[in-house]
C-alpha cells in the first residue's frame, strides 16, 4: 500500500461513492452541450481531465451506473443520489473526465488548475441569461479542433467496423 496522500478526494452527494486521485487534473473544461445541460439541470458541467489510472474508487463502485447518450462516450452517475460522476470516450479509454462538483475541496493538496476552455458554446442555453465570463479561456462552438479529429476518426472506424466498443463501465 502506498502511503502517499492522494492529490484530492471526491464523492457523490450521498457519499455512497467515494474516490481518490493520485494526480491533479491536467486541465478543466466547461461543457455547455445540451446533454450536459439536461443531465445536470444547469447551464454546463465542468470536467477534470485525468488518466483513468489516477482514480481509485474507495467505496461504492458498484453504485456507479453507466449511461450512454451517444455511441462514442459513457457517463456514470450514482444510482442512489443521481450525482454525475464521470464521462469517458471509447477512443480515449485511458482517460476520464471527472465532474468538478464531486471534488471534496478540503482534500485538494496543491493548486488546482483553473478552467482552460469552454466547449459546445454552439449549444449553450440562453434562457437563464448565463454569460461565459471574460476569463481569458479558449472558447469553442463544439469540440476543440484536436478532439474533433479524434471524433471523426472514431466515426470512420465505426463505419468501417474496425473498432470494437470497449464497454467502459465508467
Ligand atoms: Zn450517491
Ligand atoms: Zn457536454
Query: What is the structural class?
Result: mainly beta
Ligand inventory reads: zinc ion
CATH class: Mainly Beta
Separation of termini? 24 Å
Binned strand content: 25-35%
Oligomer: single chain
Q: Main sheet: which strands, in order across? A: 6-7-8-9-4-3-11-12
What is the CATH architecture descriptor? Beta Complex
Number of separate structural domains: 1
What fraction, in percent, of the residue positions are helical? Answer: 10-25%
Using the CA coordinates, give the radius of gyration. Answer: 16 Å
Order of helices and strands: EEEHEEEEEEEEEH
In the CATH hierarchy, the third-tier topology is known as Metal Binding Protein, Guanine Nucleotide Exchange Factor, Chain A
Question: What's the β-strand tally?
Answer: 12
Note poorly predicted spans: none
Principal-axes shape call: globular
Average pLDDT taken over every residue: 94
Core attributes:
globular; 34% strand; binds zinc ion; Metal Binding Protein, Guanine Nucleotide Exchange Factor, Chain A; eight-stranded mixed sheet; mainly beta; 2 helices; 170 residues
Task: Describe the secondary-structure layout.
Elements: E1 8-11, E2 18-21, E3 27-31, H1 34-40, E4 45-51, E5 55-59, E6 64-70, E7 73-78, E8 84-89, E9 95-99, E10 103-104, E11 115-119, E12 138-139, H2 145-159
Parallel strand pairs: 3-11, 11-12
Antiparallel strand pairs: 1-2, 1-10, 2-5, 3-4, 4-9, 6-7, 7-8, 8-9
The chain binds zinc ion (ZN) (2 copies).
Amino acid at each position: 500500500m502506498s502511503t502517499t496522500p492522494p492529490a484530492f478526494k471526491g464523492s457523490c452527494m450521498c457519499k455512497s461513492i467515494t474516490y481518490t486521485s493520485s494526480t491533479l487534473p491536467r486541465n478543466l473544461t466547461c461543457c455547455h452541450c445540451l446533454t450536459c445541460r439536461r443531465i445536470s439541470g444547469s447551464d454546463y458541467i465542468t470536467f477534470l481531465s485525468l488518466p483513468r489510472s489516477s482514480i481509485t474508487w474507495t467505496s461504492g463502485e458498484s453504485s456507479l451506473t453507466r449511461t450512454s447518450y451517444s455511441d462514442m462516450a459513457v457517463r456514470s452517475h450514482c444510482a442512489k443520489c443521481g450525482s454525475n460522476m464521470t464521462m469517458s470516450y471509447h477512443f480515449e479509454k485511458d482517460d476520464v473526465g471527472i465532474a468538478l462538483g464531486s471534488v471534496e475541496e478540503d482534500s485538494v493538496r496543491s493548486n488546482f488548475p483553473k478552467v482552460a476552455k469552454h466547449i459546445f458554446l454552439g449549444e449553450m442555453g440562453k434562457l437563464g441569461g448565463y454569460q461565459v465570463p471574460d476569463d481569458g479561456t479558449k472558447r469553442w462552438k463544439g469540440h476543440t479542433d484536436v478532439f474533433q479529429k479524434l471524433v471523426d476518426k472514431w466515426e470512420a472506424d465505426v463505419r468501417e467496423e474496425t473498432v470494437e466498443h470497449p464497454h467502459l463501465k465508467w
